[in-house]
């Protein structure tokens, strides 16, 4: 029972392992996966999101500010009653409430320039994101083609080794029959051993290229990662029929390098306008509504005191006679009652204020002037960077054009070389079969054929990559390029 259970577990694990190994990645899958998971692209996406927030901030600068306030305070000792304005020693509670509205009416047009700058920066962040995607996609494509190249090179060596093994078997029979000398057999055996060494080296190259591509994709399962086995045909060279001027003109309109430099230049010009806005006055408007409430008791008149209805006081005297002058007033009783109702106090004690404030810059330690000077320098710097970006793009397009043409010619030449070496190999094989040449000359002929085939594989994938680079400069996105 335990043995059956063990066999079942091994079978399940084997099924999972086979399913994991069945996954083979196409170039499009690798590019799409990299665009979704690459850290650099994620950072560019965060920068784009931050630029959108900055644009929202700039829009908010045009809107009024609205703030509410509330306070509740207890006072003890000699204090002024905020309602009766009478000083007395007591403990009482007060509360106040208010609403403030403020708006910037004029600030040297800096709010307008800030909004324009935020919009430009948002576009710039999208260009940076697009450039990051193009760079990653091109890097992934190059790594993918390197895996293909190493695999094709391994196939060439393995195919030649199969031929060597057949030749080794035939030579052994001929040596045993006394037709060929022992030296020929030793030469074939040495060739076989050398090919085995190069097969191991080629297998390591394939493994290293696969690991490198997996690391680029942030895939940690290196052992089970592999690319799809499919035939990649040589692309057409239609783009080489276009003039260099046409490709360069299209590149200037579509490539992110120049667009990024241009947006940086416009951004610097906006920064200069914002810095100059500090020379102008700032005009703000405000509106305030406030009210208050007191929690201490109130006093009201309770009528004339029946026991002492009149109070008489001496208020002076007659100068000529010295006779005193008296004044009488009703003696009123004061009745203490609770505080005025809360809601009633709010509308009895409320009030509003509104007005404008003007701030005129006169002297700020050369801060505004120096900011303007720095902004002018930055404008000139970004103008040079824009010019340099255009020159670099022209140079890169011209170099890519020449590289593609050179790769096309090298690929055609490699095909001619392979055809010639194949005929030379067949001729050497026929001569070796009838004993007209020795094993060393035959091995050299086979080595030259293998070298020509390896060079042809290298030239093929180099040509594919160079053509795709040139197509990218022509405005064809990597996602639309078919390999």
From TrEMBL:
GO terms for cellular component: cell outer membrane; efflux pump complex. Gene3D superfamilies: Outer membrane efflux proteins (OEP) (1.20.1600.10). It holds the Pfam family OEP. The keyword Transport applies. GO terms for molecular function: efflux transmembrane transporter activity; porin activity. Belongs to the outer membrane factor (OMF) (TC 1.B.17) family. This is Outer membrane protein.
């Amino acid at each position: 029972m335990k043995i059956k259970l063990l066999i079942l577990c091994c079978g399940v694990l084997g099924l999972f392992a086979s399913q994991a190994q069945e996954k083979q990645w196409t170039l499009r899958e690798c590019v799409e996966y990299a665009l979704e998971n690459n850290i650099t692209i994620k950072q560019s996406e965060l920068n784009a999101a931050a630029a959108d927030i900055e644009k929202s901030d700039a829009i908010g600068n045009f809107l009024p500010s609205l703030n509410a306030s509330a306070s509740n305070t207890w006072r003890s000792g000699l204090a002024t009653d905020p309602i009766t304005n009478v000083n007395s020693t007591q403990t009482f509670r007060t509360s106040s409430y208010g609403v403030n509205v403020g708006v910037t009416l004029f600030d040297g047009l800096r709010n307008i320039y800030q909004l324009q700058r935020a919009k430009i920066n948002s576009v710039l962040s999208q260009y940076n994101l697009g450039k990051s995607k193009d760079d990653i996609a091109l890097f992934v494509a190059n790594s993918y083609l390197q895996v293909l190249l190493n695999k094709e090179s391994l196939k060439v060596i393995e195919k030649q080794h199969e031929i060597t093994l057949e030749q080794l078997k035939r030579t052994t029979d001929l040596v045993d029959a006394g037709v060929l000398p022992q030296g020929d057999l030793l030469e074939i055996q040495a060739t076989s051993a050398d090919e085995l060494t190069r097969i191991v080296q080629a297998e390591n190259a394939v493994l290293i290229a696969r690991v490198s591509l997996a690391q680029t994709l942030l895939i940690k399962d290196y052992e089970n990662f592999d690319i799809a086995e499919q035939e990649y045909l040589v692309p057409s060279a239609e783009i080489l029929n276009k003039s260099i001027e046409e490709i360069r003109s299209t590149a200037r309109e579509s490539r992110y390098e120049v667009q990024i430099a241009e947006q940086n230049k416009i951004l610097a010009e906006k920064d200069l306008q914002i810095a100059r806005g500090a020379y102008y006055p700032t005009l703000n408007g405000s509106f305030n509504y406030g009210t208050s409430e007191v929690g201490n008791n109130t006093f009201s008149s309770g009528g004339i005191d029946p026991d002492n209805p009149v109070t008489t006081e001496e208020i002076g005297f007659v100068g000529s006679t010295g006779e005193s002058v008296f004044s009488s007033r009703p003696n009123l009783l004061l009745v203490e009652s609770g505080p005025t109702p809360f809601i009633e106090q709010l509308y009895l004690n409320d009030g509003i204020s509104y007005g404008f404030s003007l701030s005129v810059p006169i002297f700020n330690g050369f801060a505004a002037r120096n900011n303007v000077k720095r902004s002018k320098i930055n404008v000139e710097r970004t103008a040079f960077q824009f010019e340099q970006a255009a020159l670099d793009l022209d140079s890169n397009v011209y170099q890519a054009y020449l590289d593609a043409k050179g790769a096309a010619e090298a690929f055609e030449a490699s095909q001619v070389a392979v055809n010639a070496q194949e005929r030379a190999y067949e001729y050497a094989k026929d001569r070796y079969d009838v004993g007209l040449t020795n094993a060393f000359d035959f091995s050299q002929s086979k080595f030259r054929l293998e070298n020509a085939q390896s060079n042809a594989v290298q030239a093929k994938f180099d040509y594919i990559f160079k053509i795709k680079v040139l197509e990218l400069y022509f405005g064809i996105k990597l996602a639309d390029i078919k390999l």
